[in-house]
Amino acid sequence: MLQHVEHGFGPVYDKESRILILGSFPSVKSREQAFYYGHPQNRFWKVLAVLTDTEVPQTVEEKKVWLRAHYIAVYDVIESCDIEGSSDSSIRNVVPADIERILEESKVQHIFTNGKTAGKLYRRYQEKSCDLPMTELPSTSPANAAYTLDKLIAAWQTIKDYL
Questions:
Q1: Which of 26, 59, 134, 137 has minimal Cβ neighbours within 10 Å of its Cβ?
Q2: Is 6 exposed, middle or buried (0-12, 13-18, 19+ CB in 10 A)?
Q3: How far apart are CA 108 and CA 115, in angstroms?
Q4: CATH class of the domain comprising 3-162
């Protein structure tokens, strides 16, 4: 059953952020933790740790510090929507997130989307107002079983050009 859900927590960025990674909308587990990529099977943090040759941050505070230390901003393309659980395919009645503020207050040079849904929604709601290149990357979600961790790491290598 669809329920209307607010994002619940804001973006992570600072004035030195160089790239912005946008997901679609937080999963149930992420909303419970009030932070990004909170599902234990999501490979987001593992992929980024490998690409930066660092340990995987564990706590929310460690993740915030880690993101800032690597000049990475993180947010989602949706501020609120109707959704069933964590299912991107069920998303309806989208209220897009305001990402222009992040771009104005940082050094973001490139936007990456984490998955097809995030890419599609970014193109629909935010691309016209953002004068930056965007690259759609494969989703790190456990639902994207077609991509092994190694395949994700290979596909996500492109972010290293901007860090």
A1: 59
A2: exposed
A3: 19
A4: alpha beta
